[in-house]
Design goal:
This protein is of the alpha/beta class. The protein has helices at residues 18-26, 59-68, 71-77, 114-125, 176-181, 240-248, 251-262, 310-330, 338-367, 371-386, 388-398; strands spanning 3-5, 11-14, 34-37, 54-58, 80-82, 84-89, 95-99, 109-113, 131-134, 138-144, 149-155, 158-164, 167-169, 185-201, 208-214, 217-224, 230-239, 269-272, 276-285, 289-290, 293-295, 301-302.
Length: 414
């Protein structure tokens, strides 16, 4: 097989899914020479992370895309504002209602289909002459030394050797880059699977998202634009064994059980879309950076989808890393230097731990049906509903506005 030596890059992003493409978009005007290596063809239809799932994009995430100059393309393809969130414990008295006006926001978040987000991101990066793509291609080897990183990339029948000052691992929860670097991670299996689909309902959701905790796991119902139909996104988390049953049901059986599980707040569920499933796990890593290497998105962390924090956490990785790299370029510093990258790691570790703890605690507390604990959590839901300062704090966390925010999340350009 022929082997070719490439001119050095400032940054090679391994993984061109939602997080990798977002980082490329954020840095497209930075002056950095960027290459994205992606294992599947460069189309939204082929990219597995641009699938039928719906994403609850936090308000802070929307502001990141807006400041990056990408939100217009996303909005044009179709988003649905989340103006209200109703949180409840199925079969019990506790509930909390969150409203955008409680925090002075135009929306708490936005529902975006993964395919829409993928198409918008690719429409931007494909027009940018600063971003090169190598796909479909696979990284087969990675070596780090003092001067840079060397990647061996297989593309078709040829092998290419690529050198760069920095490698960003955006290649997902089973990151090959992370494994090749030997970065240790801890993984907790939830023994749960998320069954994801969309459905038509007889009554409009009027911008309201529902998070209902049930004995088998949380059930999220998200508002969606649907032309002449009232549509909702469905994220039904349940045991892995029951998930197989959900996937085997006919559409009519699935809708009937969904109706029984959720109730009639939106009238009747009348039509079902394509179903997909994803195993759920908590993943944390011990090192976010190494010399010449940085972990972002699911390569750095995975969390339970309760409260819709997963992609938003990865998007804040993107905004923070973009700021750190742009500042380093202005200062004439090497983007792969460990002292530069440590700024990113120190910044992100607190947010990652907070969200991991927040989502994990929600799941554990609502999974426990011991009567005293069930009573306390329902009283807690009522307290959040009745105490404005507590409610505003909860909204800031779930809307991606808590803690130290990077410039893009504050509406400031890099």
């Amino acid at each position: 097989m022929p082997m070719s030596q490439e001119a050095p890059y400032d940054l090679v992003i391994v993984g061109g899914g939602m997080v990798g493409a977002s980082l490329a978009c954020a840095l497209r005007d930075s002056g950095l020479k960027i290459l994205v290596v992606e294992a599947v063809p460069l189309t939204a239809a082929a990219q597995p992370s641009f699938d039928d799932r719906t994403i609850a994009l936090a308000y802070g995430g929307k502001r990141i895309f807006e400041t990056m100059g990408v939100w217009g393309a996303i909005d044009q393809l179709g988003v649905t504002p989340i103006e209200h969130i109703h949180v409840s414990d199925r079969g019990r008295f506790g509930f909390t209602r969150l409203h955008a006006q409680d925090a002075g926001l135009p929306a708490l978040g936005y529902v975006v289909e993964s395919r829409v987000l993928g198409a918008a991101l690719l429409s931007v990066v494909q027009r940018s002459p600063a971003i090169e793509w190598l796909c479909p291609a696979t990284v087969t080897d990675l070596r780090i030394d003092n001067d840079g990183a060397t990647l061996t990339v297989q593309q078709g029948g040829s092998t290419r050797t690529i050198t760069t000052r920095l490698v960003a691992a955006a290649d997902g929860a089973d990151s090959a880059v992370r494994d090749k670097l030997g970065i240790a991670f801890e993984r907790t299996e939830y023994d749960q699977t998320a069954v994801v689909t969309n459905a038509a309902v007889s009554q409009p959701s009027v911008g309201t998202a529902f998070e209902r905790f049930t004995e088998s796991g949380p059930l999220a119902i998200l508002p969606m634009r649907g032309g002449n139909e009232n549509r909702v996104g469905v994220v039904w988390s349940t045991s892995r064994a029951q998930a197989e049953t959900l996937l085997a049901w006919s559409d009519e059986e699935f809708l009937a059980h969904l109706q029984e599980r959720f109730g009639e707040r939106l009238g009747q569920f009348t039509r079902l879309g394509k179903r997909a499933s994803y195993p759920l796990r908590l993943t944390t890593i011990r090192e976010h950076v190494r010399p010449r290497a940085v972990m972002i998105g699911n390569a750095a962390h995975t969390v339970h989808p309760v409260a819709g924090q997963g992609f938003n956490l990865g998007l804040r990785d993107v905004a923070t890393l973009a700021e750190v790299l742009v500042d380093a370029r202005r200062e004439g510093r090497d983007p792969g230097d460990l002292a530069v990258l440590q700024r990113y790691a120190d910044w992100r570790v607190k947010d990652n731990r907070m969200i991991s703890s927040f989502t994990n605690s929600l799941l554990r507390v609502f999974a426990n049906d011991i009567p005293p604990l069930a009573l306390l959590r329902n009283l807690g839901l009522i307290a959040v509903d009745l105490l404005p300062p507590v409610k505003r704090g909860f909204i800031r966390v779930t809307s991606g506005l808590a803690g130290r925010l990077p410039r893009l999340a504050r509406g400031l350009p890099l």
